[in-house]
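Before drawing any conclusions, I looked closely at one protein, both as residues and as discrete backbone shape codes, quoted below without any editing:
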Amino acid sequence: MTNIIKAEFLKSKRTMGSRLVFIFPVLSLIVAFVLTMGMTNSYSESAWNWWYTLLLPGMLAIICHLSLSRERKAGYYNLMTLSMDKRDMMLGKIVYMGCLIFISNLILFIGALVGGRFLTTSVPANGAAMTVVVLTIVQLWEIPLFLFLSEKFGMMMELMICLFITVFGIVVAPSRMWFLFVSAIPMRVVTPLLHVLPNGMRAQAGNHLLNAGVIIPGILISIFWFVLGTFLYLTWFEKREVK
């Protein structure tokens, strides 16, 4: 599995997908700078909010599509010629995608932390550091979903569904039903860590959304959907005819 993951990094070296891992976090930092110019204690809040509510899911959807497009252009050469199980190959790709989420979250964290020092912010540094790990875990479920949507329907449909479930998650996140909709979990669990509401506003003391008791349940629910989605996707991919 380690060799498969290393191979994925080598295949994506100097490709657009590898560049997007850096471009999208930087874009979030730039947008936050423009929108909060002259405002106090708002830079990191805005950068993180733009990141997990829009740019991170969008980046992941595009990277999933680009990765599969690269395999299709090669005629699925690796899957057809290497003496490795197709499930292992695709599982390695999924783990690789998870690594990209972590890297992009880390870039955003560093940029928001440094920018917040100069432009002022109320986001706690320890909470933001924890968000890098937590946000990576609770976004993993999107990987098998986006890979399936890209393979089955193409990038435009994938991006439309990505936008729909992300906006739906933002709407549902503040409600008591957040745990029923996996797309609402990322917005809900990072609130007590960043002290930022899903709408981008700072959470005031006493707000029920600051309850950190949602973090562990949110992580466990997300892991369940990730495992289930990965199993279903790998089973579907293994049975499909490689075109």
Notes: Residues 5 and 92 are 5 Å apart (CA to CA). Residues 2-239 form one domain. The first helix runs from residue 2 to 11.
